[in-house]
Amino acid sequence: MYVLGLGGLILGVLDFVAAAPHRPRAPQYVVNQDRADAVKQAFQTSWDGYYLYAFPHDSLRPVSDGYADDRNGWGASAVDALSTALVMGNWPVVRQILEFIPEINFDNTTTEVSLFETTIRYLGGLLSAYDLLTGPLDGQINETVQVEAILKQAKRLADNLKVAFDTPSGVPDNGLFFNPPRKSGSTTNGIATIGTLVLEWTRLSDLTDDVEYGRLAQKAESYLLHPQPPLGEPFPGLLGSDVNLTTGLFVNGNGGWGGGTDSFYEYLIKMFLYDPDRFGEYRDRWITAADSSIKYLVSHPTTRPDLTFLAMWRNQTLHFVSEHLACFNGGNFILGGLVLDEPSYIELGLALTEGCRATYSSTATKIGPEAFRWQDLSRAPEDVTHNPPPPAGQQRFYDVAGFWITNGGYVLRPEVIESYYYAYRATGDPKYQEWAWEAFVAVNETCRIGSGYSGVRDVNQQGGGGFFDFQESFWFAEVLKYSYLIHAEDAPWQVKSDHTNQFVYNTEAHPVRLAKGREGGRARRSGIV
Ligand SMILES: *[C@@H]1O[C@H](CO)[C@@H](O)[C@H](O)[C@H]1NC(C)=O
Ligand SMILES: *[C@@H]1O[C@H](CO)[C@@H](O)[C@H](O)[C@H]1NC(C)=O
Ligand SMILES: *[C@@H]1O[C@H](CO)[C@@H](O)[C@H](O)[C@H]1NC(C)=O
Ligand SMILES: *[C@@H]1O[C@H](CO)[C@@H](O)[C@H](O)[C@H]1NC(C)=O
Ligand SMILES: *[C@@H]1O[C@H](CO)[C@@H](O)[C@H](O)[C@H]1NC(C)=O
């Protein structure tokens, strides 16, 4: 089985080489209407359960038909579902959400606010809906006052969040309390929570003609573009995880493409796509990080040299660990390769996507685990701390699968399907639609429970080993959106392979319109060392 997989990968690479120096042939996309409709049905089921038992709270507890206010009680699932309802053309749900948005009281909450989570889910969801309804879906909603209310609410929310940046360095405190808005008093912040604000806050500035929002996020980002001291950049472009709010200095050199640091790298190339005139330096830093990843981090498990993962690091010591969250990296390398016309990034992105697929196809449920590990003796010597063999109980699993499971949960995360989506849009190869469909069918089978869908405890047990009784809002924003778009008709918001993108997806899968409305021809690579 995996010999065939390896053959496919080599052929795919040769295809690319054969097409050089010209761009690869424009992919031909195939619509799978039945599959797109099945995903729409899952969206409707999830929404109906949420609307009946949880709305206007944040999240549905589908087993107990209850709710949670895990994102400050502003209706997180409704706001996160809006851009998906829009691209699916689900107008009854769109109207329910648009009636609700002006009612949200963004001045008040009784619990701590996360600047990062609020930005990617609420602010990103609102800006995306506004961009879709004033762009390709202009005229679909007659009540223009409802459309204008979306932007007003986005601005009101950001005005309450702004105080987070009021630190000596300008690196924000990720924690806030409201009534009145004030910082939580953290002393450090992580590079993902610092570096995954700049798209949403810059977009808000561009839409409101108020430069302050973008300026705040870009100032914070400047410490990540110019990391100090050297401890903070163990490999060129690859950083530590945390920054001191007083000084803007890195406090460690531990990192990876996983949770806590991941979307900092993701947004570097996405900002360049958003506006190449203003964000050329972000592109340069993404290239530096990508090239270092190829040079230092690419890793193949001892038992499955055909699989490709990226190692994580503590200073310059590699750790052969990864996680579901990191599986966005395939899609991000593919996007970088498309935007920069660099086939080697696409090639690595496809290999990483295939590696993450193996984490799905190897388990009892055919869903990938939250965290996993492998051994790599070509990158580092065997070492009980940094490069251990698998625990005895997982040796047989490792022999076949090429990784062992360190956390078997699945909380309705999107990253593997997200990378299938980019792989499909870059190549048009229908195998990625098959993989996305297999993943959707597996998640539908294992996670469908009660009034919706829930995360499960152990993907390597038939049935998932028990439910968390929780339907995350990103199930609506991300899993259902990417699962749908890969089978759906082409549209202005779909990712393009030929420099005609009109949208860039934030890390919560909300499509944000490019600054100039459209990608501006070939990316310029001049000025890159
Ligand atoms: C804020 O919300 C809480 C909980 O809903 C409520 O008890 C409180 O009165 C509200 N405060 C304001 C100022 O609206
Ligand atoms: C918008 O208004 C037109 C004309 O009044 C009407 O025909 C159409 O159904 C309305 N569309 C929506 C989405 O309400
Ligand atoms: C942050 O920097 C300040 C000023 O140098 C220092 O007093 C503080 O201990 C540092 N905090 C952390 C968590 O490194
Ligand atoms: C990384 O390097 C710093 C500075 O040399 C050192 O203090 C720290 O203990 C190292 N961290 C790890 C995890 O090795
Ligand atoms: C998803 O699950 C539901 C409920 O078990 C089932 O009716 C439906 O056919 C499933 N859809 C797919 C595509 O497997």
From TrEMBL:
Q: Which GO terms describe its biological process?
A: carbohydrate metabolic process; ERAD pathway
The protein depicted here goes by the name: alpha-1,2-Mannosidase
Q: Which cofactor does this sequence's record say it needs?
A: Ca(2+)
One annotated GO molecular function? calcium ion binding
Q: What domain of life?
A: Eukaryota
Transmembrane regions = none
The catalytic site is made up of E117, D262, E370, E415
Signal peptide extent: 1-19
* GO cellular component term, pick one: membrane
Please give the organism.
Canariomyces notabilis
Q: Which family does it belong to?
A: Belongs to the glycosyl hydrolase 47 family.
Q: Which UniProt keywords apply?
A: Calcium, Disulfide bond, Glycoprotein, Glycosidase, Hydrolase, Metal-binding, Signal
Biochemical pathway = Protein modification; protein glycosylation
What is the E.C. number? 3.2.1.-
- Organism classification, top ranks? Eukaryota, Fungi, Dikarya, Ascomycota, Pezizomycotina
Reaction equation(s) it catalyzes? N(4)-(alpha-D-Man-(1->2)-alpha-D-Man-(1->2)-alpha-D-Man-(1->3)-[alpha-D-Man-(1->3)-[alpha-D-Man-(1->2)-alpha-D-Man-(1->6)]-alpha-D-Man-(1->6)]-beta-D-Man-(1->4)-beta-D-GlcNAc-(1->4)-beta-D-GlcNAc)-L-asparaginyl-[protein] (N-glucan mannose isomer 8A1,2,3B1,3) + 3 H2O = N(4)-(alpha-D-Man-(1->3)-[alpha-D-Man-(1->3)-[alpha-D-Man-(1->6)]-alpha-D-Man-(1->6)]-beta-D-Man-(1->4)-beta-D-GlcNAc-(1->4)-beta-D-GlcNAc)-L-asparaginyl-[protein] (N-glucan mannose isomer 5A1,2) + 3 beta-D-mannose; N(4)-(alpha-D-Man-(1->2)-alpha-D-Man-(1->2)-alpha-D-Man-(1->3)-[alpha-D-Man-(1->2)-alpha-D-Man-(1->3)-[alpha-D-Man-(1->2)-alpha-D-Man-(1->6)]-alpha-D-Man-(1->6)]-beta-D-Man-(1->4)-beta-D-GlcNAc-(1->4)-beta-D-GlcNAc)-L-asparaginyl-[protein] (N-glucan mannose isomer 9A1,2,3B1,2,3) + 4 H2O = N(4)-(alpha-D-Man-(1->3)-[alpha-D-Man-(1->3)-[alpha-D-Man-(1->6)]-alpha-D-Man-(1->6)]-beta-D-Man-(1->4)-beta-D-GlcNAc-(1->4)-beta-D-GlcNAc)-L-asparaginyl-[protein] (N-glucan mannose isomer 5A1,2) + 4 beta-D-mannose
According to the UniProt record, which cysteines are disulfide-bonded?
A: C327-C356
Where Ca(2+) binds, per the record, is at: T507
